[in-house]
Specification:
Number of strands: 18
Shape: globular
Distance between the termini: 44 Å
Helix content: 10-25%
Radius of gyration: 22 Å
Order of helices and strands: HEEEEEEEEEEEHEEEEEEEHHH
């Protein structure tokens, strides 16, 4: 599956893939708003599409406006040349006479154009001293598997801001179809996978969580939703991981391709029971292994 084409061909407007120029949302509920007058409907149609010249990437920008309200969304989709990662995000603004309440504001709300008899969701969960445990759950027909974090900037302890969705019964690290969805966001998140009653459609959602209630968006103010990184693999989960690592080194981490000095993590070796000798003995051990 070509993720970039999937997102921009005909344009995926928060989950509803329909012909260019005829966008209406929100079939999948990725964006939910209460207008200044109390109405809850959104009928967004494409008003502009352009491509931004950018070295090393293809960047398409699509603007959608509501048919009845001065409410606008600008969607960005960027495909990097040096990895299989696709970055997408949206900017939301309005010029209504009073604030608009955003009840849901997903960065991704998409019907995946892949059919499979079995769909599973893999995530990482845990707590202090027991982080990054792998959890995998099947998504049965007519069911939703929801992942959420409510711990703010410590969300990675409880529920990492990413997931892998596998399509097929025999997906492994080296084989099978897998979609990776990760958020560039350290705050509270919500992610979910939903299948319809006969398993013909799989919908994927990911975005910032709103555990304390709707987000108030004032007139004339623009909010940029968290960026989502999508990776598609037909070579199993391992290829998704490698593409994420490549994207992070090349486009997220400062000096991600530089050779860095070794950092000795004395915490895991000694916890609170350390002395000068404990630390120097650990340093000697690192030196014996070739560390500088």
């Amino acid at each position: 599956m070509d993720v970039f084409s999937w997102l921009v061909s005909g344009y995926l407007a928060f989950g509803q893939l329909i012909p260019q120029g005829q966008q209406e949302i929100v079939k999948y509920g990725g964006l939910q708003a209460i207008h200044a007058d109390g109405a809850v409907t959104l009928r967004l149609k494409e008003s502009k599409r352009s491509e931004v010249k950018e070295a090393g990437a293809r960047h398409v920008v699509v603007t959608l406006r509501d048919e009845h309200y001065p409410f606008e969304i600008v969607r960005h989709v960027r495909q990097w040349d040096d990895c299989a990662a696709v970055e997408t995000w949206a900017e939301v603004r309005h010029d209504e006479p009073a604030p608009v309440k955003l009840l849901k504001m997903d960065s991704v709300a998409a019907a995946v154009p892949v059919k499979a008899k079995a769909v599973k969701v893999l995530s990482l969960t845990g707590r202090w001293a027991w982080e990054a445990n792998v959890a995998e759950a099947p998504v049965a027909n007519g069911q939703i598997v929801q992942l959420c974090s409510k711990a703010g900037t410590r969300d990675a302890w409880e529920s990492n801001a990413g997931m892998m969705v596998s399509f097929g019964a025999d997906v492994t690290e080296t084989s099978g179809m897998v979609l990776g969805v990760a958020l560039e966001w350290t705050g509270t998140t919500e992610r979910s996978v939903r299948r319809d009653w006969n398993g013909a459609t799989t919908e994927v959602f990911a975005g910032a969580g709103l555990p304390t209630g709707p987000y108030t968006l004032d007139p004339g103010v623009t909010i940029e939703l968290p960026r989502a990184i999508l990776v598609w693999s037909e070579k199993g989960r391992g290829e998704v991981s490698r593409q994420y690592h490549r994207w992070a080194r090349n486009h997220l981490m400062p000096h991600g391709r530089d050779l860095h000095p070794v950092l000795l993590n004395s915490w895991e070796g000694s916890y609170f029971s350390f002395t000068e000798k404990t630390l120097t003995d650990m340093m000697d051990g690192v030196k014996e292994m070739g560390g500088e």
